[in-house]
Write a structure and sequence with these properties.
The radius of gyration is 21 Å and the shape is globular. Helix content is 24%, strand content 30%. The chain has one domain: OB fold (Dihydrolipoamide Acetyltransferase, E2P) (Beta Barrel), CATH 2.40.50. The chain is of the alpha+beta class. Strand 1 and strand 2 form a beta hairpin.
């Protein structure tokens, strides 16, 4: 009997916490802490950006730019759960495509009162990622294209070029 009484305060505290968390809504993946805050991570990764490396450089010689962190601009062509196909602007259409690899999906919906931003196909975005390799991707037309693949760190809408309010931040 004494043992049950000792557990009672802890059990009631857990029950109260569960009740409160149920009333306040669910905790999304974006709200869970994975170490440094998104703001700290964004500030740190911005320090690593090599602004001189273009998508064309990665197409010409992937070995010379592999591992570099880049900030590129383009329009979203296609979205999967684990990657985004982006076409940047330039002279050669074929040479201005790349894939941003995602470690979690982009936000797909928001609810009343939330400030969640979303991006869709054809939206212009700025992205930051680490150049990983050049691989094939299957296009909607059924043809394959070999393009640079980047490990995704940040995605922002075109009007947020400094990543003050990113749409998506990788989990490091």
């Amino acid at each position: 009997m004494l043992r049950k009484l000792q557990l009672f305060p802890w059990a009631s505290l857990c029950a109260a916490a569960l009740l409160l968390s149920g009333c306040s809504g669910t905790v999304s993946e974006r709200e869970v802490s994975y170490g440094p805050s998104n703001e700290d991570f964004v500030a740190a990764i911005k320090q690593e950006i090599d602004y001189l490396v273009s998508c064309e450089d990665a197409m010409e010689d992937i070995d010379a730019v592999r591992g570099r962190v880049v900030k590129w601009y383009g329009d979203i062509v296609r979205i999967w759960d684990d990657k985004v196909h982006i076409q940047s602007h330039g002279q050669e259409e074929y040479w201005n495509n790349f894939i941003l690899l995602l470690d979690h999906p982009l936000p797909k919906e928001s609810h009343i009162g939330e400030s969640t931003q979303m991006v869709f196909e054809r939206d212009p975005v700025y992205v930051v990622g680490r150049i990983m390799d050049r691989k094939s991707v299957l296009l909607k037309s059924g043809t394959e294209m070999t393009v640079p693949h980047l490990k995704g760190f940040i995605i922002s809408k075109a009007n947020d070029r400094d990543f003050e309010n990113p749409v998506w931040v990788g989990h490091k």
